[in-house]
Every structure is written in C-alpha cells, then in structure tokens.
C-alpha cells in the first residue's frame, strides 16, 4: 500500500512538471540584425558650376573684396562701369538682353566728351606712376578689367544686373555721372559678391564632407593649404 502511494505521488509530480513545462512560453528565436547599406552623400558642388580652383578675393577691413574695382577715383570708377557695360553688350546675347547694345552705344554717344576726358585723366595717371612703361601697364589693367567682368559662370546674373544699370546710364546727366558711377559699380559687382559668399560656403561644406566621408581627402587638402601658404609667404 505504501509503495503504491509513493508511485502515485511520483506520477502526480511528473505530471505537474509536464504541465508546468507545457505552460512556459518558448523563447523567441534570435534574429540577427540586418546590416544597413552605407550611404555616402554626394560631395558639395561649386556654385554656378565654377571651377574648383576658383580663387575668391580676400575680404578687406572695410568689408569690400580686394578686386580690380578697389581704390578707384570717380573717373576710374565710371570707366570700370563703362567696361562692364561694354562686356555686357558683347556677351549678353539672349533675347531679354537685346537692348544692351543700343543702350551702350547711346551711353557712349551721350557722354562722349566726359568719357574721353576720363580716359585721358586715367592715362595721365599711369604715365605719372609707371613712367615709360605706362602704356603696357594700362593695357594689362584693361585686360584684367575685361576678364573680371567676363567671368563666365556669372554670365546670367551679371547680364541681368547690366540691363538694369544700362537703362539708367542712358538717362543720367553729365553732372550726375560721378554719383551714377559709384552706385552702378556696386550694383554690377553684386552678383560677384554673392558668388564669393556662396563659394566660401561651398568650401566650408566640402571641408565638412571630407572630414566625415573622405578623411584622406581632408588630409591632402590640409597639406596642400599648408604648402600653398608657405609658398605664398616665401615670395
């Protein structure tokens, strides 16, 4: 009788263990994480499709860029405006710029004497400052001036600005030429100044991109800057 009772207890215990085991939830299978593909965003690009080797003029203490249009007298300022309108008349060929040629010719015709005197005064200044080589120095300056206004990535914004300036140029009186020259030069330079700021932002963005996604390029760029600075200071 006692042995039967023990067997019964063992059977009951075994059954209880089986029931408990059956009631336990099976552990969830371990799923390995799926590797996410590494995505590298494209490197920043230059504004207006400009060259990656574009050199941005330094900012002066007076807040102006150190360009060919700095430190000019009133006559030189107007002459630089005339050069800009000349470049615009020759290179802005889209239909919306059709009036530029007529405006430029009218500006020259209406102010022939004033512009002739301005040119003579500028050449005299070169003669005083450069001596016998004044003509070559003046020619180099003129070439640099036309090249400045002819910066091809900014053709459209420059032409847009030139159209606005040219419309005022043909109605400005001679005694207002000095004031017109100063304001017109600032307006014509605006697309360039906006570009310089955008290009500097591009350089900052590119530097950040290199540091995160292409550290080798970042090191190469830093070495190149150091070498360039050393060469510049040594000259």
Descriptive terms for the model:
235 residues, mainly alpha, 8 helices, 0% strand, elongated
Description:
The chain is mostly helical and 235 residues long. It has a domain at 67-192. 68% of the residues lie in helices and 0% in strands. It has helices at 2-23, 74-91, 99-110, 112-130, 134-149, 155-169, 177-213, 215-234. The longest helix has 37 residues, at 177-213.
Give the topology, please.
Elements: H1 2-23, H2 74-91, H3 99-110, H4 112-130, H5 134-149, H6 155-169, H7 177-213, H8 215-234
Short note summarizing the structure:
This protein has 235 residues and is mainly alpha-helical. The protein is built from eight helices and no strands.
Helix fraction, binned, reads 55-70%
Question: In what range is the share of β-strand residues?
Answer: under 5%
Give the terminus-to-terminus CA distance. Answer: 115 Å
Q: Helix segment count?
A: 8
Number of strands: 0
Gyration radius (Cα, Å) is: 37 Å
Alpha-beta classification: mainly alpha
Based on Cα principal axes, name the global outline.
elongated
What is the succession of H and E elements?
Answer: HHHHHHHH
Spans of 5+ residues with little confidence (pLDDT < 50)?
226-235
The biggest beta sheet reads: none
Question: Average pLDDT across residues?
Answer: 86
């Amino acid at each position: 009788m006692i042995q039967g009772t023990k067997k019964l207890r063992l059977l009951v215990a075994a059954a209880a263990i089986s029931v408990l085991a059956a009631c336990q939830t099976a552990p969830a299978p371990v799923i390995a994480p799926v590797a996410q593909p590494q995505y590298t965003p494209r490197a920043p690009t230059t504004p207006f499709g400009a060259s990656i080797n574009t050199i941005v003029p330094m900012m002066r203490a007076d807040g102006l860029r150190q360009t060919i249009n700095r430190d000019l007298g009133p006559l030189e300022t107007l002459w630089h405006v005339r050069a800009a309108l000349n470049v615009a008349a020759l290179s802005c060929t889209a239909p919306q710029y059709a009036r530029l040629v007529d405006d430029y010719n009218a500006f020259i015709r209406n102010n022939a004497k004033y512009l002739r005197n301005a040119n003579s005064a500028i050449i005299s200044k070169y003669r005083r400052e450069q001596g016998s080589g004044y003509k070559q120095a003046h020619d180099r300056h003129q070439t640099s001036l036309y090249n400045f206004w002819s910066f091809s990535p900014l053709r459209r914004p420059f032409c847009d600005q030139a159209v606005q300036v040219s419309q005022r140029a043909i109605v400005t009186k001679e005694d207002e030429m000095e004031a017109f020259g100063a304001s017109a030069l600032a307006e014509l330079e605006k697309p360039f100044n906006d570009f310089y700021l955008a290009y500097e932002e591009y350089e900052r963005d590119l530097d950040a991109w290199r540091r995160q996604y292409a550290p080798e390029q970042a090191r190469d760029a830093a070495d190149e800057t150091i070498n360039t600075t050393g060469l510049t200071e040594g000259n």
